[in-house]
Design goal:
Length: 136
């Protein structure tokens, strides 16, 4: 199963959250995200590290080691207008992950409630772990 990941689940994975169980799961061969979404992860990871009392350098290394495929915006450009229509007014930062999901016909992986009404297959981390057979 391929997934289009939002920044919040990737951030959770790098700070030791339950999302970390999913990012390297054998049943998930590829996690896609956009450069913009990945830049959000890079920006907020040190902030979250400080809040959680974690070493920022270790968290930054964890971000660099995330097993994600960064997809160029041009590869989902045809789906951007549709994604913008579906979710842009609620959260413009969620447009690109949704465009990936629409373009590649894959589920979104996010804990963001904005995706609930975006007419897309959606996994929260808890739902994904249940789907994968891990006990939540």
């Amino acid at each position: 199963m391929k997934l289009a990941a939002d920044a919040n689940v990737l951030l959770s994975a790098v700070i030791g959250g339950r999302a970390g169980l999913a990012v390297r799961h054998a049943k998930i061969p590829e996690i896609l995200t956009t450069a913009y979404t990945f830049s959000e992860v890079e920006e907020y990871a040190p902030v979250l590290a400080e809040r959680r009392g974690l070493r920022a350098d270790v968290v930054i290394l964890a971000v660099a080691a995330l097993p994600v495929t960064i997809v160029e915006r041009t590869r989902c450009a045809k789906s951007l207008p549709e994604a913008l229509r579906r979710i842009g007014s609620r959260d413009p930062e969620d447009v690109e992950p949704l465009a990936l999901a629409v373009q590649f016909r894959i589920p979104v992986w996010s804990n963001d409630k904005d995706f609930n009404s975006a007419n897309v297959d959606l996994f929260t981390t808890a739902g994904l772990l249940r789907h994968l057979g891990n006990i939540e």
